[in-house]
Amino acid sequence: xxxxxxxxxxxxxxxxxxxxxxxxxxxxxxxxxxxxxxxxxxxxxxxxxxxxxxxxxxxxxxxxxxxxxxxxxxxxxxxxxxxxxxxxxxxxxxxxxxxxxxxxxxxxxxxxxxxxxxxxxxxxxxxxxxxxxxxxxxxxxxxxxxxxxxxxxxxxxxxxxxxxxxxxxxxxxxxxxxxxxxxxxxxxxxxxxxxxxxxxxxxxxxxxxxxxxxxxxxxxxxxxxxxxxxxxxxxxxxxxxxxxxxxxxxxxxxxxxxxxxxxxxxxxxxxxxxxxxxxxxxxxxxxxxxxxxxxxxxxxxxxxxxxxxxxxxxxxxxxxxxxxxxxxxxxxxxxxxxxxxxxxxxxxxxxxxxxxxxxxxxxxxxxxxxxxxxxxxxxxxxxxxxxxxxxxxxxxxxxxxxxxxxxxxxxxxxxxxxxxxxxxxxxxxxxxxxxxxxxxxxxxxxxxxxxx
Length: 452
Known about the structure:
By secondary structure, the protein is of the alpha/beta class. It is built from 19 helices and twelve strands. The strands form three sheets. A five-stranded parallel beta sheet has the order 2-1-3-4-5, sandwiched between helices. A five-stranded parallel beta sheet has the order 7-8-9-6-10, with helices on one face. α10 packs parallel to α12, α13 crosses α15 and α17 crosses α18. Residues 221-226, 266-273 and 397-404 have low confidence and may be disordered.
């Protein structure tokens, strides 16, 4: 079956012309006029490409382009507009589209764009399968890879898994370095062996030395753990050293000697079995600081850096935030036994715009708090931590309108609940009192998660 293309345009004549143009190129085309039908087709048809009119109406005063980008992260999304609307269309495209196309669509240009888009979508779906495979191996800890930086990281994870050399993971605190380390182990030939994580910054030097190298003078008692240390006991497993730069220089030198001995099998006596544990180390330290002699030694950095994976900060992969939010809502909904199943679009926009200095760890904590505070089925802006709800916009301006939105929402919820109580829960009569349509009332009840 040909790849499906979804055309969204409120103008019936333009919609028909686009359908004909795309069909003549050999693609299966579905053409709709607005948000509701577009969302249905995303669920049912999983289009590879979406052509959306820049000014097609969305829902809840949010533009449709932004909503489509969230609901169909794997699809290639093009914004279409007339040439005279180019500037405004490009501004809208920034909200999530991959590119812009001018109307009327030209067959030659469209053929090239669609061919490239098909290849991109197929690649994204391959990564989704890889992501699912990793997810099965590491359980509840997700690696969400819809953004380009994360797709690139997944490719690096695959390569590192098939390579037996040490790995160095770099990135800010909270970016998920241990999750990536577990993914590398889970996809490698060592997956049946143990994976042990050691937090180097949380233990004393003596405790870490004993944990790594053991106590050669000690004799373990019956039932006690071996005193040989992790580097011997793990065999062909994987040892993850978090914040390896926190190790004292003397310990770094011992670790460096071990890695060099692994690299040169002749360094150990032939009668001794070669130490085969794989080291995956991580640091949040800037490597230019390490080169200056602070923290991670230059020699150890060189030995570990043969395979180096840089984890992007969450602010550098904003298109992944909605998927992470959905995952954490589902996780905490079950863990906290709450009825929360979704998040309001204006609240999600705040999360996407927030700079996240604490990265994924901070996002996870924020969603946990929001799920705890939410009173209905949906998280609203009032449920978010104040530092997020009141944070300046990315351009540095204050979000003066947000408090008004929260006030309007709170007021509407209160008025709707009073109308429902006054009419004994009769929504038709309540809609008349509120002077809105019955359909609008049902939408607001669902949007606000009102139990009535």
